[in-house]
Amino acid sequence: xxxxxYVWQRATAALMVPFVLVHIAVIFYATRQQMTxxxxxxxxxxxxxxxxxxxxxxxxxxIHASIGVCNILTEWSPLRDRGAGWCAVLLGIVLxxxxxxxxxxxxxx
Amino acid sequence: MPEPAAxxxxxxxxxxxxxxxETYNVPRRESQTVLDVVTYVQRHIDPTLSYRFxxxxxxxxxxxxxVNGHPSWTCRTHVAKVADAGRLQIGPLDNLPxxxxxxxxxxxxxxxxxxxxxxxxxxxxxxxxxxRIRPDSAARIAADAAIECINCGVCYAACDTxxxxxxxxxxxxxxxxxxxxxxxxxxxxxxxxxxxxASGGCHSCHSHQSxxxxxxxxxxxxxxxxxxxxxxTAAYLKGxxxx
Lengths: 109, 243
Description:
heterodimer; A: mainly alpha; 4 helices; B: alpha+beta; Ubiquitin-like (UB roll); Fumarate Reductase Iron-sulfur Protein, Chain B, domain 2; 2 domains
């Protein structure tokens, strides 16, 4: 890992701390209020705030996880920097696609 | 005083990377060190045994081996403190190529010192007056805390990250770089920070602290590496570093 990846991974980790807390609070709130999926979607539909919140969350997760996996592959697989880097980029793209698809479903559909 | 009745059962690594442990019986003696045991085998049982030592008093850093699974300096390691039920297993240092028996090739270890720019880069010539360094300055205190490394390679052999990532510079080279980063007379920090901030540099350290745990001189390379992380990250964020 070089200093650029180190800074990105630490910065996204710091960003995810409040994201995770808010996300868990939302889960607790939704379950304690016995909200159905339809109830939740009715509140998130068209919400720019939830789109921004979960959009940023997905971006942070995609960057953070792919850097971490790159490091693991470098240390635990025969792949070296370049090969591990490409695998990590691929993983980041997959995570981002899946995540943004879910965000779109939450606020637009 | 020799204790004729007491014998040590000593397993020594013999051969190269595809070698094996062979067991020898060595008389137990008072105040006996692990290096004494190895030397006894070489002088009295098998003169073909290869190992490395020089000063015998913990200064030169050449006698490090793996003793009962832990990297140690053998000249200052007393048998009484490490022999488990009269048994010793002594092998070459981990994470380095084995030349033969207990002798490892230290070339990768010192090449990484070079890669980490562990060489003093003077900022003045000898014609200029001697630099005045305050011993109580923060930079000098930081350098002094890490300066006593004897290059024994124990931290390098103990490091999990070195084991997993052959490109990682390792605790000793980074600890050396930290002493120079804090040396007010040195002029090589631009190049040095770029070297230790690159892939395989200080940011690869997982802070497992095995280096600190095993360092025979009780140095703390993990703290030095943490210092390098702070310093190089700050330089990167200021745009002073090209990663």
